[in-house]
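Retro notes - structure team

What went well: the batch runner handled both jobs without manual restarts.
What didn't: labels got mixed up in the shared folder, which is why I'm recording both outputs here explicitly, each with its sequence directly above its tokens.

Job 1
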Amino acid sequence: MPFRFANVAGRSTLADVDGNYFDLEQLSAGSVSADPMLALADGTTLANLSETLGDHQPAGTLAQADLGAPSPRPRNGYGVGLNYATHVAESSMEAQEFPIVFAKYPSCIVGPNHDLHMRSEVCDYECELVIIIGTGGKDIAVEHGWDHVLGLSGGQDFTDRGAQKMNDPPQFNLGKSMDTFGPIGPVVVSSDSFENRDDIGLETHVNGELRQQDRTSNFLFDVPTMVSFLSKFTTLAPGDVIFTGTPSGIGSKQDKYLRDGDIVTTTFEGIGTLTNRCVRVSDWR
């Protein structure tokens, strides 16, 4: 059964297709935790409860809610680089045999509408579908990769290019994991909600200007492959987040870095929209 999971003001909720949300602790008569990190570990219960939403009064609407990251405290956060041929080309690099993986430190994870706190003049946007792990595991076979996915969410892999390239070789983890550099949301959508879970449209606008547009059917490494690959090196845990790579159109390749006051709007087909205001707060160097 399809479901949509959201973090409203720090509480676990389910949402219907009309954008109403239902508090999970109340909906389940206390059997499901109000803590989103605990609630999202049981996709079967979420799916079963989603079938009953029509029998209950909603607690409010997502449009008026204080939305947090659906997985607010993941044990681990991962990023996959160069996962679209168009981004490989604009980066003047070559496609790789294996996924390129870096860390998105959990401390960078924030809600879908959180401000981006910039500490240089060379901060960049990267529109990315986000995998939320439901059932953890080790040495997961590719053919079982989707079985370990709770659902899909949207994200921005914001990057400080100066911090990333402070040294040679680059500091990917630091440049991509500053506080606020990992907004995700607005909801987690179960994979059975999509007509084709391997073909989801995504796009980024900055101040209304279209900068990125692609579909996840153009991944070089698909969702099951990424899940399986990571599990060969580290045991995946419920709530872990995987940023799946960005298409072409990033700011650094157009000399269009983010500026104080810019509005970054990122939309994912069947999931929703993130809106992040850029705020210049200090300098890291």
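Job 2
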Amino acid sequence: MIKIILLIPFLTLVMCDQPVKDEADSNGVDSLWTLTWQDEFNGTGGVDSTKWDQPEYNRRANDNGPDGWWLKEDAYQDGNGNLVIRARRINNRNNDNDPYDYSTGAVRSLGRFEQRYGKFEARCQMPEYAGWWVAFWLFSNSVFNEDGSGEDGTEIDIMEGFGWNEIIHHNLHWDGYGNAHRSAGFNQTMEGISEGFHTFTLEWSEAEYIFFVDGIETWRSAAGGVSKVPAYVKLTGELSTLPGLSGEYWANDPATGFFPDHFLVDYVRVWSRSSD
């Protein structure tokens, strides 16, 4: 993902106690919502390939060797009801003696599930350390269309977060990632977000996007014109040594982190609304 760091004043929100893990039909969702897709991550080993694709590629090549790989072995189920997204050092992957090669995990429902509008929710535990960031987001390939509008496809970042601070980001990106790229976003310091599990929710309608953390509304927007095309689900860890992305206003320098580090996802659930 291409990131634009927004200079928006931080607010503080005291988080409520976390609920125990519920069944998919008893998560406080009213009868207007119908469950359409879910993964409770109750398996072991690799992820369910009927629900998830696992991309593998290097984020970028650089003079000191590659960094930021997405590797399949860094996304797996732990046998305790969680998806694990792991970040780690992978020294000498290319036999180049580069001490700064890293990998993270990623899963996406590409080719398995996509939906336009609805409620999208994940219950997650943030990583512990600096040097990488994690995300729960929606994507459609038409994001790359450059027509001055997000209606034909918007990257919807329901949550982006870190292990080194308690800031949660919500972001929207449209019109590709080149000179025409546009974005809007909101970030907020959330006391206690680094401890335990928290729920991150998007309600996406034809009129607007509404974001929630632990059931509390944090931001709403119709920036770019609300996307009207189906999107697939992504859960990712990301790492880069580029100055902006490894700087003090984003993930921080991975050389200061402790690896391996882990991002846990308890569940992902998606609902549609009867009027959609």
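One thing worth noting from job 2: The chain has no helices and 18 strands.
We'll revisit the folder naming next retro.
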